From TrEMBL:
Species in which this protein is naturally found: Pontibacter saemangeumensis
SUPFAM superfamilies associated with the record: HAD-like (SSF56784)
Transmembrane segments: none
One Pfam family this sequence matches: Hydrolase
Alphabetical list of PANTHER family matching this protein: PTHR47478, PYRIMIDINE 5'-NUCLEOTIDASE YJJG
NCBIfam families: HAD-SF-IA-v1 (TIGR01549), YjjG_YfnB (TIGR02254)
Superkingdom of the source species: Bacteria
Name of the protein this chain belongs to: YjjG family noncanonical pyrimidine nucleotidase
Signal peptide: none
InterPro entries: HAD-like_sf, HAD-SF_hydro_IA, HAD-SF_hydro_IA_YjjG/PynA, HAD_sf, PGP-like_dom2, Pyrimidine_5'-ntase_YjjG
Coiled coil: none
């Protein structure tokens, strides 16, 4: 277990844990992708299906694993540009498969028509969530107001939540499209705070993206839990309020 509030947490963890439990939160804000909904697993299943559906192996230039790895690399960088406001939604959707497949050796005219649309239709219907997601949400729901705050696209995020049966746990679902701002812009957090009518001190943000979720919440005055399931070593400054590697740890924190 690795939740902490200070760099010297190994010396003061019992006291800090007690202090945490004495602090009262009323609302928990969750990111969706990579935090509750297992984007990587669901995306991998989708891409393997598309590899077969569009006969990408017939080109003889890459296998399914290479296709998945290249797409993951390209998509991650395009989402980073989108989160920073450097590209629009349409450009992200239209270019990721072109960049992926031309990067693997296809000519632009060889990129199959409709592959982007097929991905958008299929991927959100996948149902994988992170371990202990449902157990933790069952535990939290009677105790806190639960809300989603996501930069994902509105129609896609609602399909993901419906397909994976996450909708019943959450009161408010705020997307960047519906409020006009994207994390880490503090105005997106303030939009949600206004909808639920609470001060930032009453909320705790849980997310996997340091810049969008952790730094953004901090800028809005909200405490944060950095979800780091890969236990990736990092030296973030300032540190997140807390850090966990498994959602089950939330039951010990809250």
């Amino acid at each position: 277990m690795q939740f902490s509030k200070h760099p010297f947490h190994q010396r003061v963890l019992p006291t800090l844990t007690l202090l945490f439990r004495m602090k009262t939160y009323a609302h928990i804000l969750f990111d969706l992708d990579h935090t509750l909904w297992d984007f990587e697993k669901n995306s991998e299943e989708t891409l393997y299906a598309l590899y077969d559906q569009f006969a990408l192996g017939s080109f003889g230039k890459f296998d399914c694993s290479s296709f998945y790895r290249k797409y993951k690399f390209v998509n991650m960088r395009l989402w980073d540009l989108y989160n920073k406001g450097r590209i629009k939604q349409a450009e992200l959707r239209e270019s990721r498969f072109v960049k992926t497949l031309t990067g693997l050796g296809l000519e632009p005219h060889e990129v199959p028509a409709g592959i982007s649309e097929a991905y958008i239709q299929l991927c959100p219907t996948k149902t994988a969530v992170f371990p202990f997601a449902y157990e933790v949400l069952e535990y939290l729901k009677p105790r806190y107001g639960l809300h989603i705050i996501t930069n994902g696209f509105k129609e896609v995020q609602h399909i993901k939540m419906s397909s994976s049966n996450l909708h019943p746990y959450f009161r408010e679902i705020v997307t960047s499209e519906c409020c006009g701002y994207k994390k880490p812009d503090r105005r997106m957090f303030e939009h949600l705070l206004g909808r639920i009518g609470v001060a930032p001190e009453a909320c705790l943000m849980i997310g996997d993206n340091y810049e969008c979720d952790i730094a953004g919440a901090r800028d809005a005055g909200i405490d944060q839990v950095f979800f780091n399931p890969e236990k990736t070593s990092h030296r973030r400054s300032p540190r997140p309020t807390y850090e966990i590697s498994c959602l089950s740890e939330l039951k010990q924190l809250l």
